[in-house]
Amino acid sequence: MFFMKKNAGPRQEMVIPAHIGIIMDGNGRWAKKRGLPRKAGHRYGAKAMEEICKYARDIGVRYLTLYAFSTENWKRPQDEVDSIMNLLRNYLKDITNHQKEEIRTKFIGDRSGLAPDIVALMEEAEEKGAHFDKLTVNFAINYGGRDEIVHAVREIGKKIQDGALQPSDIDEQTLEDFLYTAGQPAPDLIIRPSGEFRTSNFMVWQSAYSELVFMDVLWPDFGPKDLDRAIEEYSRRNRRFGGV
Ligand code: IPE
Ligand code: IPE
Ligand code: MG
Questions:
Q1: For residue 81, what are the domain limits?
Q2: Residues 163-218: pLDDT tens digits?
Q3: 135-143 and 103-108 beta bridge pairing
Q4: Which entry of 25, 147, 188, 226 is annotated as an active-site residue?
Q5: What share of the chain is helix, strand, coil (3-state, %, to 5)?
Q6: Distance, CA 88 to ligand 2 centroid (Å)?
Q7: How many domains does the chain have?
Q8: To test ligand 2's pocket by mutation, which of 30, 196, 200, 222 has the most ligand atoms within 8 angstroms of CB?
Q9: The model's pTM
């Protein structure tokens, strides 16, 4: 009942969010429905992701944050984790695609938990795409919203220890400056496909005033039309930020 309704109200002017976050969920269930191994779901999920990146750029989204692997996803069977990491490797080797599409790529999350070759490929991709200014895609890999806050607090602790900061100087902006998304606007819209009504440790700090849209579609089936539907729903929302 909390799902977005199909054709929920008249079509109206689309308000394109500057920053969209997507919790790319449902790959495993998509594969299961087809009698395929879970890793096939991840492969098709990666394809859906490519299409959404291009579409987001075309409609003028400035930031797109894609939740690809959480700090909790290490709990999965080793062969599934391995297949996701291999998909990521191949994707990164092929990142020239993104260059062709003029998409700036950034990775958010704890890199210290990732294989060194993957980290090197990430750095290379970030460098090569740094000059593109239409769309920035943040890939959240080994990302946890709580972990991100802990990381920020540690960095602030170091500054205090060095005498560069006083505890009384800490405000919301200080904390934001140490998040992986420092310098970016908070997500206006967060979309979770797959039928689950939770955010699973995604952008815990940044989502304070995000509009949430839950959709009953599995990620590998998610296409531009679904993004349109979510944006239409977003366009009908009345954001008040605590005001009237
Ligand atoms: C999302 O799909 C991808 C990752 C979390 C890596 P899932 O693998 O969680 O798919 P379901 O939720 O089991 O269907
Ligand atoms: C959230 O999906 C993480 C990603 C999509 C990367 P999960 O499948 O891990 O979330 P839960 O376990 O259903 O909360
Ligand atoms: Mg899932």
A1: 3-236
A2: 999 999 999 999 999 999 999 999 999 999 999 999 999 999 999 999 999 999 99
A3: parallel
A4: 25
A5: 50, 15, 40
A6: 17
A7: 1
A8: 200
A9: 0.95
